[in-house]
Design brief:
Elements (H helix, E strand, L loop, with lengths): L35 E9 L6 H9 L19 H7 L29 H16 L12 E6 L5 H21 L6 H15 L5 H5 L3 H10 L5 E5 L4 H14 L5 E8 L4 H8 L21 E9 H6 L6 E10 L12 H15 L8 E5 L4 H15 L6 E4 L2 H4 L6 H15 L1 E2 L16 E2 L6 E2 L7 E7 L4 E8 L18 E10 L5 H9 L6 E2 L7 H4 L14 E2 L16 H6 L2 H17 L11 E6 L5 H10 L1 H8 L6 H10 L10 H5 L2 H11 L4 E6 L4 H14 L5 E8 L4 H9 L23 E9 H7 L5 E10 L9 H15 L8 E3 L6 H15 L8 E4 L2 H4 L6 H15 L1 E2 L19 E3 L4 E2 L8 E8 L3 E8 L17
Parallel strand pairs: 2-3, 2-4, 7-8, 7-12, 8-10, 17-18, 17-19, 22-23, 22-27, 23-25
Antiparallel strand pairs: 1-5, 1-6, 3-18, 4-5, 6-13, 9-11, 12-13, 14-20, 14-21, 15-16, 19-20, 21-28, 24-26, 27-28
């Protein structure tokens, strides 16, 4: 029996007020948390456009119709791709939606907006209406929005194709003699006419723009972030929301996940992972058909939901995941031990015996080995085979919605609890169900919940990254009525290891030397990165060109992967961001001393900030769709520019292999790090525009404070010095024509920079106990979404994030001596940021001026890695007792509000004396969509006593 091969999970006597914790070796048990209620649900699928029809389809045990991928998604694709897809079926939306006016999207931006954006906006609207919005309005400042999605959107593919169109035409022109400038301009104009071109293009393709626009549309001012973890995306999105609610960081959380296939690439890549035409619980299934859709849930603490008189669909009482590293990359392992571990831990948190889960809804991918592993784990947990176990999977009804599969399952279980009915599940013709004693698969349609049963449901799922997850849901009547929320201890989080590489500086030693020397890492962009004849134009109005010549391109081009067990074919195709992230993680973990501290590792997670659509995915997607460019210019005098280039460079379906998906996944960076260092970590990618790094660190802080994890590697990586980003940012007029100049007169934008920064984090009490080297302690992280504009900075939104950080820190802004600003070097941005600082940091008890700086002056703007760069600089300043210079390239802007606090930009290396025995600092990051983060730091010496929970400020 499986139970004899595993350490038994003890079920301690806990109250129903516990929410969740990690299955870890924490030094003390997690503080009890309050259960979370689901008070609004929306489900949109190709065959069910609202929650009522979604439930009706499940209750009847019906199967959604399958169809070929719609022709409008793949116009003029290659003959080979068409032939390949003719027999391929899934549950796809037939037509594109166009709800622009309803969501107040201006006509000029509509070609820039993704269908995923519109789909998730519709789901958010339905969910909030279901919960009683606007009459029952959640608190605006304390409502978060979390969005999950996988794969590049149609807007990203269109952007990639129009930039690639110019590149391919230029390469063809290079083979000719004579002047081709007129032809290239004509090609640019035709691409603009067909695909559209606006200042909103880059905003529209970003995953984090979705939660930001949802927050803006409904007026919410809490956190807004997008997350991805392959087909465990639903779980990591829910986990982020549960941590924020449990940690007292928010009052309500809108959680949305969506799935579409706007490019051929994901469908072909997943086909290589086994997705076909099978179904869950069938003996020989290789994988279920892929599906599309979006599901939204509105979450509140149970006591708040009861107070507000909300309709409560279900109560989340336990949530856990387990993972084992796999050197072979992304694959379904069918690991019964992991499913047992996740289910046992979730039940422990819910204070129930696993046998009390008589109904389990399964987000299974349809692979037979996954179904068999689940049955093995559930049989071992039940202990009593005489009682029927009701298993269902809405995947059999709807198909496998990948990023959204988990939320579909949670919605199905919640509706079953609400209506007291077990849904039906269609059977696969000609495929035999897996037989187990007393297993009911609901083949005869929906049926009433057994009269003798208490209303408790399990929901489980897995992921290609090796994650197994489990949640315990119940009806509200099954939870004790006298739930009280315990104060949340805001324990400081220690940073105990650092790694980084930015522009010309390969590691932390080089970064330290460069910053302390006042070196300028921003240099002319190499011709190999930005071909000037094709893309550079001093005329900023020229379409599909770049007017900027300076950036901090990553000097490193080769990465040594030999220490890691990575298949050579996989290594050859890996995205450069994956390789850079791995290198910086290796430096951070070595700095921490992981190899000699594994006995203290405990439960581990890896949160990586990144653009959720890596460059390799865009490049491969565009290469599969190159025939669209041929068709666009067919019959014109310009057609010859594309004929040979497309034939040589396009990607055929046969070239997509088992490792293709692994090579372009953003969360693959986190999974790769875990696999290479045997962390068995839950992997996730986080995007919050240019504030992504601090968003990932905020998630890490909440996870550590809750004792969900004991060690977290968090950081950010992005490589924006490339043709596509330079072109799209030029269209948005974001770049400087010279070099970025924070705080300077006539500041005209930023210079892009490549880089990554990684950090190892632990609870301060654990770090002190273990004798770790501590760079500093994070005492607070505040976040907001200003909900006013997708692009313009808002001092009030920034100030709100700062105030939220100080609520956790327990000390006054007057103590902070230095702020590493976002400092993008735009006139409006610099003034807005300093105005926000004036609003929060002005205090009569301040003993000296507030020093400010911006590392972007040295290494440019690294987008998702920007907060990591600012944090790394600040940690080094705290450690070495000096504040390095911000390069002031022109005269200081006289309009900056510097006198009030007063504020002093640091323009030369200067010593940083200790204040009241410690150094206090802050780091700001702001992003497109009004996303704002503010992180507070305090130096820690070896003489500090291990902190006691009673000393922490409670939220």
């Amino acid at each position: 029996m499986l139970r004899h091969r595993l350490t038994q999970t003890r079920l301690p006597d806990m109250t129903d007020a516990s929410l969740f914790s990690s299955a870890s070796s924490s030094s003390h048990d997690q503080t009890l948390r309050e259960p979370v209620a689901i008070v609004g649900i929306a489900c949109i699928t190709p065959s069910a456009q609202d929650t009522e029809s979604f439930w009706r389809l499940l209750d009847r045990g019906e199967r959604a119709p399958l169809r070929a991928m719609p022709a409008h998604r793949i116009p003029q694709t290659s003959a080979a791709a068409k032939a390949h897809l003719d027999a391929w079926r899934g549950s796809f939306f037939a037509e594109a939606e166009s709800d622009f006016k309803r969501f107040r999207i201006p006509p000029a931006y509509r070609k820039s907006v993704s269908q995923m954006m519109l789909l998730q906006l519709r789901a958010a609207e339905q969910c909030l209406r279901d919960a009683g919005y606007p009459d029952k309005l959640p608190p605006l400042d304390d409502t978060d929005v979390y969005s999950g999605a996988c794969f590049c959107f149609d807007s990203a593919l269109n952007n990639a194709l129009k930039v690639e169109g110019v590149r391919l035409a230029y390469e063809a022109a290079e083979q000719r003699s004579g002047d081709c400038e007129a032809d290239l301009d004509a090609i640019r104009e035709r691409l603009r006419e067909h695909f559209g071109l606006s200042s909103h293009d880059r905003v529209g393709e970003m995953a984090s723009s979705i939660p930001a626009r949802i927050a803006s549309h409904f007026g919410f001012r809490g956190r807004a972030q997008a997350l991805e973890s392959a087909d465990a995306t639903s779980y990591v999105v829910l986990e982020a929301a549960l941590l924020a609610l449990s940690g007292g960081q928010t009052k309500a959380a809108l959680v949305i996940a969506g799935q579409r296939y706007d490019s051929l690439l994901p469908a072909l890549a997943l086909e290589k992972k086994g997705f076909a035409s099978g179904a869950p619980f069938t003996a020989n299934s290789a994988g279920a058909p892929l599906a599309e859709g979006a599901t939204a849930l509105l979450l509140k603490k149970l006591s708040d939901a009861r107070r507000d008189g909300d309709c409560i669909y279900s109560v989340i009482r336990g949530a856990a995941c387990a993972r084992r590293d796999s050197p072979s990359g992304y694959r379904y392992g069918g690991d019964a031990a992991l499913k047992y571990q996740a289910a046992a831990e979730a039940c422990r948190q819910a204070n129930i015996s696993p046998a009390r889960q008589r109904f389990i809804e399964c987000a299974l991918p349809g692979h037979a080995e996954e179904s068999k592993a689940l049955l093995t784990a559930m049989a071992d947990l039940r202990h009593d085979d005489s009682v029927p176990l009701h298993l269902r999977s809405c995947v059999a009804n709807l198909g496998y919605a990948f990023a959204n599969a988990g939320l579909n399952a949670i919605a199905a279980a919640s509706l079953a609890l609400r209506y007291g009915r077990l849904p039906g599940m269609p059977q696969e013709d000609g495929q035999e169900l897996l037989q187990r004693q007393n297993i009911d698969y609901g083949a005869n349609g929906g049926e009433p919940w057994p009269q003798t049963d208490e209303l408790i449901a399990g929901v489980c799922g897995g992921g290609l990254s090796g994650v197994s997850w489990h949640m315990v849901l119940s009806s509200p009547d099954a939870v004790a009525a006298d739930v009280e929320t315990a104060p949340v201890p805001q324990e400081p989080i220690a940073i105990v290891g650092v790694g980084g590489s930015f522009g010309p500086w390969r590691d932390v030693t080089a970064i330290h030397a460069g910053l302390w020397d006042g070196a300028d890492g921003i240099q002319p962009i190499p011709e190999a990165v930005l071909p000037h004849r094709a893309f550079f134009s001093a005329d900023a109005s020229r379409p599909l060109s770049c007017y900027a010549q300076y950036g901090a391109a990553l000097a490193q081009s080769e990465f040594d992967l030999s220490p890691y067990k990575i298949f050579p074919r996989r290594a050859a195709g890996m995205d450069k961001a994956q390789k850079l992230g791995l290198q910086c993680a290796a430096e951070a973990l070595a700095d921490y001393g992981l190899s000699r501290k594994r006995q203290r590792q405990g439960a581990t997670a890896v949160f990586i900030a990144s653009n959720l659509n890596l460059g390799r995915e865009r490049a491969l997607s565009a290469a599969l769709h190159y025939p669209q460019l041929q068709a666009l210019f067919a019959g014109s005098t310009l057609a010859s520019y594309f004929q040979d280039a497309v034939a040589k460079q396009r990607l055929s379906p046969e070239e997509v292999d088992h490792f293709t998906f692994d090579s372009f996944s953003a969360s693959g960076i986190a999974a790769l790090i875990s696999n290479c260092f045997q962390l068995n970590a839950a992997p996730a990618a986080v995007e919050a525009a240019c504030a992504s790094s601090l968003a990932a660190l905020h998630n890490a802080v909440l996870a550590l404070r809750s004792h969900r994890y004991d060690l977290v590697l968090a950081g950010g990586v992005e490589l924006p010095v490339n043709i596509r980003d330079l072109t799209l940012c030029s269209a948005q007029m974001m770049l400087s024509q010279h070099k970025i100049a924070p705080f300077a007169v006539d500041a005209d934008g930023f210079s892009p920079g490549d880089g990554a920064g990684m950090f190892v984090l632990k609870r301060l009490s654990d770090a002190l106990r273990d004798g770790d080297t501590i760079y500093a302690a994070i005492t607070g992280v505040g976040a907001s979404c200003d909900a006013r504009s997708m692009t313009a900075p808002d001092p009030q939104g920034q100030a709100l994030a700062m105030r939220k950080a100080f609520v956790q820190a327990g000390y006054s802004p007057a103590r902070v001596q230095y702020v590493e600003t976002h400092g993008t070097g735009t006139r409006l941005g610099d003034i807005a940021e300093l105005s926000a600082l004036n609003e929060v940091y002005l205090a009569p008890e301040r003993s000296g001026p507030l020093k400010v700086g911006s590392v972007k002056s040295n290494i440019g703007h690294t987008f998702a890695a920007a907060g990591s760069a600012g944090l790394l600089k600040t940690l080094l300043a705290i450690r070495y007792g000096d504040i390095p210079a911000t390069l002031l390239r022109r005269e200081m802007n006289p309009e900056l509000p510097l006198a009030e606090i007063p504020t002093e930009p640091v323009t030369a290396l200067q010593p940083w004396p200790l204040g009241d025995g410690a150094r206090y600092a802050a780091v700001s990051s702001f992003g497109t969509g009004g996303v704002n983060y503010h992180l507070l730091l305090q130096s820690v010496t070896a003489t500090h006593a291990a902190p006691d929970d009673s000393q922490y400020t409670a939220s």
